[in-house]
Specification:
This protein is α/β, with parallel strands linked by helices. Helix content is about 40%, strand content about 15%. The protein has helices spanning about 20-35, 50-60, 90-100, 110-125, 145-155, 175-180, 185-190, and strands at about 5-10, 40, 65-70, 85-90, 105, 135, 170. It has a 7-stranded parallel β-sheet, with helices on both faces. The relative contact order is 0.18.
Length: about 200
């Protein structure tokens, strides 16, 4: 039987958002990954949903790697309680490191930074740099407009019809975990290439 994926990058907000559902989902995600023995890779902050997902994973006994650029160490208050903390020179090298360590990507509620991370990892998949699963967790319908934008890009001819299949939208953390726990590491990493500037 193929080995199951062992590391997942979670993209999410450095703020909590307006609904308690967002924080609850971040807590559930961190705890669920830890209980499943899956290594959490995230943006390294100790604030907002980022801090919440890390705290929940740590509390459940999980391995957590935070990756944060030097200039955000104070603004996002880097998390000193994680298993490993990596400080990078730039935002781009942060994303490259997250990509290198993770075998799948989960997108929780977030703002512009979360959108940036999603769009880059989605574009890399479109360019065949990886085959890893990309899951958007549509907590309380937060991703409705985001998914609509992606659908519009396809409808208007700016992306091929099969591009929409490069990511999956799931309704909750439980559904995301079911998907992650049925993905093999071979499936997630086949054809993976290093992205170069």
């Amino acid at each position: 039987m193929p080995a199951r994926i062992s590391a997942v990058a979670v993209f999410c907000g450095s703020r909590f958002g307006n609904l308690p559902d967002y924080r609850a989902a971040a807590e559930a995600m961190g705890a669920s990954l830890a209980r499943a023995g899956i290594h959490l890779v995230y943006g390294g902050g100790d604030v907002g949903l980022m801090g919440t997902v890390a705290d929940a994973a740590i509390a459940a006994g999980g391995k957590v790697t935070g990756i944060i650029p030097e200039f955000l160490k104070a603004r996002e208050i880097m998390h000193n309680g994680v298993t490993d903390l990596i400080v990078t020179e730039t935002m781009h090298t942060r994303k490259q490191k997250m990509f290198a360590l993770a075998e799948a990507f989960v997108v929780l509620p977030g703002g512009f930074g979360t959108f940036d991370e999603l769009m880059e990892i989605l574009t890399w998949k479109q360019l065949c740099l990886h085959t890893s699963p990309i899951l958007i967790v549509d907590v309380a319908g937060w991703a409705k407009a985001l998914v609509s934008m992606l659908d519009t890009a396809v409808e208007q001819g700016f992306a091929s019809p099969n591009a929409r299949g490069l990511l999956e939208v799931v309704p909750d953390v439980e559904s995301a975990m079911k998907r992650l726990c049925t993905t093999s590491s071979t499936e997630a990493t086949s054809g993976r290439q290093e992205e170069r500037v």
